Amino acid sequence: MKVVYFGSDVFLSCFEYFLKEHEILALYTYHNDEDYFTEYSITALAKERGIPVHYEAITPEEIKRYFRDLGCEMLFVAEYNRIIPIPEDLPEFRGINTHSSLLPQGRSYYPIEAAMERGLSRTGVTMHKLAPKLDKGDIIIQRGFDITPETDSVDIYLQCAKNASEMVKIIFGDIEKYWGEARPQAEKLPYWNRPERELMSLSHGMSRAEAAGIFRKYNAMTEAVIGGRRYFVTGLSAGLSPVYRDEIYLSPNRVLYRVSDGHLRLHILPVEVI
Questions:
Q1: Which phi and psi angles does 251 have, rounded to 5°?
Q2: Nearest partner of 94 among 65, 125, 63, judged by Cα
Q3: For residue 8, what are the contacts with CB-CB under 8 A and spacing of at least 6?
Q4: Over the range 21-51, which residues count as b (16 or more CB within 10 Å of their CB) and which as e?
Q5: Are 199 and 213 in contact (CB under 8 A)?
Q6: Is the pLDDT of residue 81 over 90?
Q7: Which stretch of DSSP H or E encloses residue 249?
Q8: How much is the pTM?
Q9: Residue 227: other Cβ atoms inside 10 A
Q10: At residue 202, does pLDDT exceed 80?
Q11: Which pLDDT band holds residue 274 (cuts at 50, 70, 90)?
Q12: Which DSSP letter does residue 88 get?
């Protein structure tokens, strides 16, 4: 099957499946500094295989060209930051989206972080038909798993990837069957918004445990104001000893950060665009 793939490193195993078993006509991806998983590996693999890589948004005209001129049979979306503009006059269009929640619960661009914010004990991954409205297409297949007190947001991403790599093989092993048996999402549940910045931000008045709890939920979306500038926190560990200043830079990307009962050892990245 000829496929146009949209996604990042989150579901890299799905991309590798299509490389092995099908033909990928193009990769559409994006970069976002607040994401723990970027596009580093997937773009390297695509370029190694001679697959065109696109950072720009796809247009309805380009989708038509893929289906009508280049033999595309499916758009496969797995962790992508734009809504796909489905052409109204393309009856042969088919597309599947991979979403990191048990739809219809968790319609969101931030389903994992929002699930952690809500303290859920269970989540999962859903593959559904692409639809004009975000995350509302007919459900093709779902798998759920538990969120334990030891689980952090990266663990959930990895669990989603593990399940998706198995689900995609099942679906495309008999695509006509699974496509025909997809079920509508009957419930009209609300979208989950991006967690408020205050919930994802560190402060000097919090404890080591409170800071670790924030980083557990939001990982690289965690923020801190250091030296009057806002940063993403890409790594966090803690120590008992106090520091004599609020922040001590060890390098441009490493800092000791005072908290109420010790210090944090932070890896940081400047927030350029949010």
A1: -165, 175
A2: 63
A3: 29, 30, 35, 37, 38, 39, 42, 78, 79, 80
A4: ebebbbbbbbeeebbbbbbeebbebbeeeeb
A5: no
A6: yes
A7: strand 247-251
A8: 0.93
A9: 9
A10: yes
A11: very low
A12: T
Contact 138, 187 (CB under 8 A): no
| Residues contacting residue 148 through CB under 8 Å, at least 6 positions apart | none
Pair of tokens at residue 55: 């950072």
The strand pairing partners of 251, in sequence order, are 254
Which residue type sits at 21? E
**DSSP code of residue 183:** B
Give mean pLDDT, residues 161-187: 96
Residue with the two structure tokens 């596009």: 39
Tell me the pLDDT band of 269, cut-offs 50, 70 and 90. very high
**What tokens appear for 43 in the block?**
């773009």
Q: What is the average pLDDT across 88-106?
A: 96
Question: What angle (nearest 5°) sits at the alpha carbon of residue 94, between those of residues 14 and 166?
Answer: 25
Q: Beta 229-239 vs 262-270: how paired, if at all?
A: antiparallel
Residues in contact with 43: Cβ distance below 8 Å, sequence separation at least 6, in sequence order: 27, 29, 53
* CA–CA distances in Å: residue 78 to residues 56, 58, 244: 16, 15, 46
Q: Dig out the tokens for 14 from the structure.
A: 């799905």
d(CA 146, CA 266): 29
- Radius of gyration for the chain, computed over Cα atoms and rounded to the nearest angstrom: 21
